[in-house]
Amino acid sequence: MSTTKVLVTGGQGQLGVTLRQTVPEGLEAVYVDVDALDITRLEAVEEFVGRLKPEVIINAAAYTAVDKAESDEAAAYRVNCTGIANLAIAAAANKARLLHVSTDFVFDGTAGRPYLPDAPVSPLGVYGRSKAAGEQELRKYLPDHSVIVRTAWLYSAVGGNFMKTMLKLMAEREQLRVVCDQVGTPTGANTLAQTLWILAFRPELTGIYHCTDAGVASWYDFAQAIREEGETAGILSPSAALLEPVNTSEYPTPARRPYYSVLDKTSLWRDLGITPIHWRRNLRNIIAEYRSSM
Ligand SMILES: NC(=O)c1ccc[n+]([C@@H]2O[C@H](COP(=O)([O-])OP(=O)(O)OC[C@H]3O[C@@H](n4cnc5c(N)ncnc54)[C@H](OP(=O)(O)O)[C@@H]3O)[C@@H](O)[C@H]2O)c1
User: Fold this and answer.
1) Residue ranges in 30-148 assigned as alpha helix (H)
2) Which of 68, 134, 164, 205 has the greatest CB tally within 10 Å of its CB?
3) Annotated active-site positions, please?
4) Residue 136: which region, alpha, beta or left (left: phi > 0; alpha: psi -120 to 50)?
5) Which domains does the chain have, with CATH numbers?
6) In degrees rounded to 5, what are phi and psi of residue 96?
């Protein structure tokens, strides 16, 4: 049986590591991060892709520091926009497909209902604008051989993320303020990785898909669930920090964030035959995984 060769960029990030942990049979995957392949350097990308000749490239590389991007616009655009153009140019030259990951932050959060993949984008900050610009580059250079997968509120047992930050702070403090008026969907990186692997086997699929776990939550809901599941798993004691819900205005950050960024996943679940998992159930799985890695 012939195997499909896949190049994963950003291989040491949260998604990159989760892809490595979940790679299915029938794929030969090569993982590189910025030290081995800096996607902002066109010549390096062309040389690497030309030599490896992958059938599929999964781009898990990104500039993801949402607040820092506000004062570091050029760097965010270099990775999230120019980097995508570079990958798309190299993919086109080598007849590879490109599966690219984008974000709910391309939306402004004023729709008041889940965003469909073809909803107009309207980012509020530099990070979201740079990701939206990257999507445009992909459509320009590789419209027929690429998929944009937008995700949101990503977390896992590896890398830096909200779940791990909350577990640490709750163990250290008596009280913790968490924003309750921003609503979205916590999403296990395992859900996104499994989706990308399915897409790697489905060359007929192109365009934009939305991929998050099922359900809706505020950051406060998510934090409260982390507290409960953390205690059940024996990571937190009953005296862990109590959570205080606060509004965004009481917790100012450099970047503005969408108030409501729930994504509509109907087309993904239908076209890929995926059975959705509720975020709360996936949180339990990921906390158990984190507990066993401690
Ligand atoms: N995390 C979330 O909540 C979230 C939400 C929505 C969408 N997303 C999207 O999901 C994807 C995966 O996110 P993640 O959480 O896995 O991010 P991550 O943990 O920050 O991983 C990104 C990886 O890309 C690497 N990288 C940065 N610049 C690079 C370059 N020039 N060339 C090659 N690699 C480079 C990073 O290396 P360094 O660490 O050395 O910089 C890091 O290993 C991204 O596209 C992100 O925009 C994430």
Assistant:
1) 42-52, 73-77, 83-93, 126-141
2) 134
3) 127
4) alpha
5) 4-161+186-213+262-277 (3.40.50.720)
6) -100, 155
Q: What rounded mean pLDDT belongs to the chain?
A: 96
**Distance (Å, rounded) from C-alpha 261 to C-alpha 6?**
31
Residue of the CA atom closest to atom 18 of ligand 1 = 13
Dihedral angle computed from the Cα positions of residues 208, 63, 93 and 132, in that order, rounded to the nearest 10 degrees? 40
Cα–Cα distance for residue pair 149/133, rounded to 1 Å: 14
Q: Please state the rounded mean pLDDT for residues 125-147.
A: 97
Is 62 near ligand 1, meaning CB less than 6 Å away? yes
pLDDT of residue 206: 96
Sequence length of the chain is 294
Using the structure block, give the residue that is written with the tokens 């995957």.
29
**Most informative mutation of 22, 64, 72 for ligand 1 (most atoms within 8 A of CB):** 64
Percent of the residues in the chain that have a pLDDT greater than 90, as a whole number = 97
Residues 160-214 have pLDDT tens digits of 999 999 999 999 999 999 999 999 999 999 999 999 999 999 999 999 999 999 9
